[in-house]
Specification:
The structure is a single chain. With 202 residues, this protein is an alpha/beta fold. The chain has one domain: Alpha-Beta Complex (Spore Coat Polysaccharide Biosynthesis Protein SpsA, Chain A). It contains 7 helices and 10 strands. The strands form 2 sheets. Strands 2-1-3-7-5-8-6 form a 7-stranded mixed sheet. A 3-stranded antiparallel sheet has the order 4-9-10. β9 and β10 form a beta hairpin. The chain is globular and about 40 Å long.
Length: 202
Amino acid sequence: MKILGVTVYHTPESLVPECKKAIEEMDRGGHQVDWLWLNESPWYGQGDKNIGYNQNKARQKAIAEAYDFMLIVESDIIIPKHTLPTLLGTQGDVIVGLTPERPSKVKTDEFIVCMPWNNNKDARMHIDLREAFEMTGSDGYTCVLISRKVFSEMAFPEVGSGDMGWYNVLHQKGFKAICQPNVHCFHKDRDGRIITGRIGIG
C-alpha cells in the first residue's frame, strides 16, 4: 500500500514534539509511507480555511501520485505505534482513531466522537467495549485514514468547522466512517498536559 501522511500546523510551536516523534516511530508495516508537514497560511487569522487549503494541496498530490490512502494526524495529537496497521485492518471508507477533547477548550476530556454535537449514538458504549463502530455523525481530523475512493471524490472544506462539514458530506454520499477505539490517541493541551481520556468509565 502507498500512504500519504499529512500534518498541518499553524506555527512551529503548534507542532508538538511528541506528535512528530510518534509519527516518526509509527509502525509502517512494510507499506510506503510519505509524510507532508504543511503550514502555508494564505489567509491570515483564518485557521480553518488554512487547514482546508493545506489538506487540499495534499489531496491533489495523493490523487496525482496514485496513493491508496491519506492519513491525517493533527499537530497536537500523539498516536500509538500500531496506528497504521490497526486502521488499515479495519473495514470502512474512512477510519477514525479515538482522541479525547482538550479540557482547556471544552472543559472535559471526553472523547471527541462522544461529544453531543457530533451526534454519534452509543459511541461511549462501543468505546468501553473497545469495539469498532460505524459513526452516524462527526468527529475531527485528529487521526483519520481516508481511502482513495473518498479523497478522489471529496475535497476538504475551506471554511469554519470544516471537519463537521466534511463528515456531513461523507454521510450524504453514502461512505462508511468507522471509529476504531483500539487506536487510542493522546491530545496535548494548551497548558502542556497530555490528555488521555478514559476507557471503561461511563
